[in-house]
Amino acid sequence: MAEESKIEQNFNAAYGVAGVVQGDQIINPPQTPQKVSTTIPSDVRQGSPNFVGRQQDLKNLHKALQNEGKVSVCAVRGMGGVGKTELAVQYALSKEFQQRYVACYWFSLNQGDLAPQILLKAAPYLAMPEKLQKSGSVEEQVKWCWQNWHPQEGQILIVIDDVKSLEDIPEELLPISSRFKVMLTTRQRNLSPRFWELSLGVLSEAESIELLTKIVDAELTSRIENEIETAKEICRYLGYLPLALELVAKYLKDDRMLSLEDYLKQLSLEDESLSDEMVRGIKAERGVIAAFNLSWQRLQGLATQLAMLLGRFAAAAIPWQELVEPTINSLGWEKKAVKDARKHLDNLSLIEIENGKNIVIHALLREYFRYQSKQEGDDFIHVLQGGIASSGIAVAKTIPQDPVIADIDRVRLAIPHLELLSQEMLDDIPNPDDNLIWAFVGVARFYSGQGQYNSAERYCDNCLKAVQSRSGDNHPDVAASLNNLAYLYRSQGRYTEAEPLYLEALDLIKRLLGDNHPDVATSLNNLAGLYESQGRYPEAEPLYLEALDLKKRLLGDNHPLVATSLNNLAYLYESQGRYPEAEPLYLEALDLKKRLLGDNHPDVATSLNNLAALYKSQGRYTEAEPLYLEALDLRKRLLGDNHPDVATSLNNLAGLYESQGRYPEAEPLYLEALDLKKRLLGDNHPLVATSLNNLAYLYESQGRYPEAEPLYLEALDLKKRLLGDNHPDVATSLNNLAALYHSQGRYTEAEPLYLEALDLFKRLLGDNHPDVATSLNNLAYLYRSQGRYTEAEPLYLEALDLRKRLLGDNHP
Known about the structure:
The chain is mainly alpha-helical.
């Protein structure tokens, strides 16, 4: 008979030594949330309403990009403030673009290196093979992304903004398919002979005047026309640069009584007074810096401080509500004054407000703001960056251990700023003993939640190094960092790498805090969970027992963490078929949670679900059903209909009905669970593969083989892509597909799959594991079905002996 997918514990060891294991019985490979989409959405920002001229440049750019037969790379070159980025935006919004391209993707090198940005943009939509994620080079990973990019047909524009040198864009990181057209923006001349270069000059005099009049109102337009020669002189003085001209127009709007002649005089005086230090510190023309200074001098109240604060954030869109407001609150600035300051900066075009929610700052203006803050001294910068660090840490702490799509989207804009925090602001973090670790943990969770394990591992490693360099090797945060890295390895099935880290964390916690501390119990629990995942039950049990005893002694019998330990121990016993020992523990955990947390709590739903699963395993279906139904109802009421735990409950209830042969009731629940997982976690997620597998098994049980086979194949393919070829869940899928072929009498197709599954289980889990016994039994049954009795008997005997040794003589 076919082996059902294992029901495993949901391991939720929190980052940090305060983590706990909370068991929810679901079919649960490591979580890697992915987007629900077959197309990676374009990400071009809104264009400026004040764009003028450049029509011939746009035509030349379009012609150069339409180079058939190879990847076209066009470099738009020009000085800072000339409008390179805006030209790229306008091209992506043009009629020509709409007619020839299916999508556009934007990468800004002022936000970081190119490769991580490509991988991050692709991660929610492309299921990179686990083997490539673990051991492939960054170049290999990026190449795979370009080869598998969605949409897979049609021309795609890739914009790489602010390229400073050819080293920023190695050839290995660029797409090779001719359907990709690559546009670069750069200040560098002759970046590469392989690139077609569009040298973007300044605006013409007529275009400059047009830009001025387009920004101002009718009254100011009339004044410009009346002082046209002075207006032309201002344009010439500013080098006909769009950024500077926009500042002038907004400046004139802000001071409506100022004549153009007086502005020109102020500009000239300001230019003459520029210090050499300022000219060296800001990569802009003298006239542009002078225009910046005039606008800066116009600022009142908190406006200059707000500008300097915004300049300390990363060179990316800054989410106001999530990051700026909390920073302002921590600095004690008055809200109305801040609102007025923001309005003043916006009116003078010193900042741009994007979608009414985010602040965008031109690269030159960011340089200018940072220069101004440096003039205030290190103490002033420390105060500003301390506020930014405080708000960033707060956001990091909201990222859950296993984020779903909604969590990823909620914090996406904050990530560049959290990355900058971990790189440049560690010395500014308030209460570093409590908060330093979070500068890395939030980003690591963000990346691991999208299957970007290499990036997550880098931040876990950096966290460990940062803590060790600041606090030494003997510090609780070192243990927490070891635990985090171990958890990351465990979630990838890298058990042999996880174990020494868990052991080191446990030893360190004991040395630092003594044997009698709640964090010691947590570390014992985490190590036990690792052993349980490997089927090392005799090693897991004493650790679970020790953790339970320790929690009771330290926290008392009536504590939620005691209930968690009871649940974990019960699940271990259930896995071994020790049902009489498991049941009272599950009941005690449920009663404890109800008394401590009340009847209406998600943890109560978890305990109901676990107890129901135990009854199902024993064939006590009439006792299991009301518990599953109660858990499902409770989760829907507490968490809403759209939550992964609701999908779990639907799946478990469907499994119960399937066990009872109530197939018409099981199928719609499996389908609903599958749909919910796809919507919440994306098409490319291990739990989606699990749901496909469960639905396939239902169809197989009904003899609906033509419907079952494509689902088993899809589940197997998905697991291989997500988890790599060498993972226990891949072996399970191979086993299930083999069982289907076996049921159909397709013995020659079943045998190599059974053999491959057996070999994989032995290599990954060792010879002494229940799944190895199952594989031996299944292979023996196949041989028996073929009349190959002499081959079947030793396998049956080996499976029986193994199960007796692992599970005891009294296991079903």
